[in-house]
Predict the structure.
Amino acid sequence: MEKWKMGRAVSCQKALGALGIWLSYNDYRQNVQGGGGGTGSLPDPTGRTLPGIDTTDCSKLWRLRGEVCNRGASPAAAPLYASFYEGHPERGGKLICTAQTTLPTAPGACQPVTCDLTNPPVRSIDLYLRVGDDGKGSRLSGQCKDKNDLAHQPAAMCSGIPG
């Protein structure tokens, strides 16, 4: 039986280039967190609201729940603040309460945060959670990507067990 003869190795890019087709592709060896701009590796705090059944009496208290996550390449130092708002915080939303993490948040990890809204409304609200917001006007700086720290839960409503 005849064996295959060794040929010259040709990369996909060279082969496509020979055909006049050049592609811009994302190569995992070149996909370095924070690269290109000289920023190095930074944390990238993000968040999300967590809807669910609460064990409190919704006529008196609504325990707001969320998660603070780190999508960056470095740990995010504690405390990492997260503030809940009724309405978009950059469009006049009303601050409800502020929570914070107690431990550093490792890259790829999340931590739960909670805070309480006393005398919650009986109607639904547009609930926002902004990570890196201490509720006093200070915002987190030195993160990998800006403007990805706001989570929205439209028509959120306390759904607890009546007392």
About this structure: Residues 12-18 form the longest helix (7 residues). Residues 45-156 form a domain with the Immunoglobulin-like fold (CATH 2.60.40.10). Confidence is low (pLDDT under 50) at residues 7-38.
